[in-house]
Design a protein that fits this description.
Layout: H1 5-9, H2 11-27, H3 42-55, H4 61-65, H5 68-76, H6 83-99, H7 106-126
Helix pairs in contact: 2-3, 2-6, 6-7
The protein binds protoporphyrin IX containing FE.
The site of protoporphyrin IX containing FE has 21 residues, from helix 3, helix 5, helix 6 and helix 7.
């Protein structure tokens, strides 16, 4: 059976390393730090870790205990994210994956940046004041897409 991206990455601990590495960079970043005045809290890091773990096939904790898609959406509304901030966010995620020692095989990283590209573009659109948004939806489930790990039959 093909493992989930969550299992391949190394489970919740690996996602926590990723999110810590990401927000450590965000706190030093000229374009992104203004979105988190006073720094990125432990609570925010813990919540976002649970979001990512769920999306990549881990426990559905963000849905079960944190308010699911609707809560995530509410946090992005009216942030008015700019295209430069979105691009920096996406680049910073890739760097954080290296910092955190996530698997760097082509299959995993293709799926990873696919989600980052998709999610950041949605976040930018949903963050614009007056945007028409999808109000309710499940937390997305991301998979390997067209390039799962090769398993000779
Ligand atoms: C793959 C893309 C993204 C994902 C998965 C994501 C995930 C999340 C989640 C789950 C939360 C809520 C945390 C909680 O429950 O407490 C959140 C909040 C937030 N996100 Fe994102 N986000 C993405 C893209 C972005 C982008 C592109 C930006 C800005 C450049 C951004 C800025 C923020 C900010 C500032 C908050 C906190 C807002 C507040 O405290 O009210 N996010 N994000």
């Amino acid at each position: 059976m093909t493992p989930t991206l969550y299992e391949w990455a190394g489970g919740t601990e690996a996602f926590r390393r990723l999110i810590d590495a990401f927000y450590d960079r965000v706190e030093r970043d000229d374009l992104l730090s203004p979105l988190f005045p006073g720094g990125v809290t432990e609570e925010h890091r813990a919540h976002v870790t649970r979001w990512w773990a769920e999306v990549f096939g881990g426990p559905a904790d963000y849905t079960a205990s944190l308010g699911g898609y609707e809560r995530m959406l509410a946090h992005h509304r009216d942030l008015n994210i700019t295209p430069d901030q979105r691009r920096r966010f996406a680049e910073t995620m890739s760097r954080a994956a290296d910092d955190a020692g996530l698997p760097d095989d082509p299959e995993f990283r293709a799926a990873f940046v696919g989600y980052v590209e998709w999610g950041t573009r949605l976040a930018l659109a949903n963050s614009q004041t007056g945007a028409e948004v999808v109000e309710q939806a499940p937390v997305p489930q991301w998979g390997w897409g067209v390039a799962p790990p090769y398993q000779p039959s």
